[in-house]
UniProtKB/TrEMBL annotation:
It comes from Spirosoma montaniterrae. It comes from the Bacteria. GO terms for molecular function: metalloexopeptidase activity. One of its GO terms (biological process) is proteolysis. Coiled coil: none annotated. PANTHER family: METALLOPEPTIDASE M28 FAMILY MEMBER (PTHR12147), PEPTIDASE M28 DOMAIN-CONTAINING PROTEIN (PTHR12147:SF26). This is Peptidase M28. Residues 269-480 form the Peptidase M28 domain.
Amino acid sequence: MRCYRIDIFLAVLLIVRLLPICSAQPKPRSATPATANALSAIREADIKRDLFALADDHFQGREAGTLNELKASVWLADQLRAIGLQPAGDDGTFFQFFHLQRTRITETSRLSIGNRDLMHGRDAVVTVPAIASVDAPLVFVGTGTPAELAGVDLNGKAVALLFSGTAPANQNVYRFVFGTMQRRSAELTKAGASAVLFVSDNFAQGVYNRWSMLLERGRYDLPGGPNTRVFAQAPTVWLPASALSLVQQPGQRFTNVVNVESFSYPSVNIVARAPGTDPTLKNEYVLFSTHQDHDGVRMPVAGASTPGDSIYNGADDNASSCVAMMAIARAFVRQPAKRSALFVFHGAEERGLLGSRYYAEHPTVPKQSLVAVLNADMIGRNAPDSAALLGSQLPHRNSLDLVNAALTANQNGPQFKLDTLWDKVDHREGFYFRSDHLPYARQNIPAIFFTSLLHPDYHTPRDEPARIDLGKLTNVTRWMYLTGWDVANRPQRVRLDEGFKLER
């Protein structure tokens, strides 16, 4: 009998001890009209069908400024029309055309070391399009330390050195390599060098493998932008690690005859709306943002799904978000909100956020009517239960109201574990600054960025639709819809944080 009473006492004590823990657990998700609509209108089967269509080889990687980007744009506009959205581009269409300007090294340019010709983009890359003509003795200076440079006459020489250094933990490797080359090149040019040649070490070679093809394409910008400028200056040339023995041979000459050419290409934003129901609030817009371009056809990369595959289909980057926007559009057409929903599929994001920069400056609706921007970029990979919300931490956060709406929607929806590291100012990828929400945030429009972050197939031919986690993609889509639904139906607009200012 005594033991029985002790057991009861211990059981009651255990229940009392557990009460605070139990009360801290998330409350069961309530079934609301919005969540019901998200489940019924946003279907994995639709998302899969659209993903495999948009990321198909038919569109040849949707490279900005090409017919393939325009073909994909027409396909998207046709789908949006079929969904029931209204055109919201220029002149009553779904399209807002703009020009992008490409500046590149001409194909007739020539580089050589001794009797070996170098092909720009494969054997070497000129880091900045600049007009130059050099025929000079080549001198190798090791890693270019002060001791190695002491007593070396650099005047009128082409100076070759081995890149040396590793990016700090909080710095983007691409920016570190280019910043280092820019700084060292300026120092050596000031000392009299007529050209500077960097040979990749093991660290820089990894960056070279990924980015040399982009440099071969040249620079892109909106007309008159900083990347359209061409200078006559001593060239900086980046070589792969395999060129080390070549530049070390004595008595070599470096020859460089480089010309620059510029082209203007059309690109396009696809813009559509789902009108709101409130007589007043329907004149305000919640903007769902994504980009539809990718990298086109490039050099094959080892490990592609098909050996020799050179089509960069961009299934995650960013067909995943395009098909998510289409699914969200179906939900808003089926059940309109008080405010209107605006869907913008930006062109030329991979060329420097050009489509979003253009639209933020030339919106097809009054700029003051844009209540918030919900941007998505790469939302279908990595762990199925995790995602990230960039723009949720200071100084990137520009609307606590908008962030709280997204956090609540996540709690009431997929309940992702949210990565907080990639939104920090000291994260080496600087990912906040690399997607289409940024131009809107710079215009002081509340903006957030939904993503499932980078992965090893990023910007390779391996980014194929078969590798997408369709269940996760569907859940991120529903999360974005629930966030936008909340913002679109609030009596008051989400507020911009006072004193918002980005770190760069």
